[in-house]
Amino acid sequence: MMISTRGRYALRVMIDLAENRDRGYIPMKDIANRQGVSLKYLERIVPALAKNNYIEGVQGKGGGYRLTRSPEEYKVGEILRLTEGDLAPVSCLECDATPCERVDQCRTINMWSKLNTLINEFFDGVTIADLMVEEESI
Question: Does domain 5-86+127-132 have CATH number 3.30.70.1560?
Answer without folding.
Answer: no
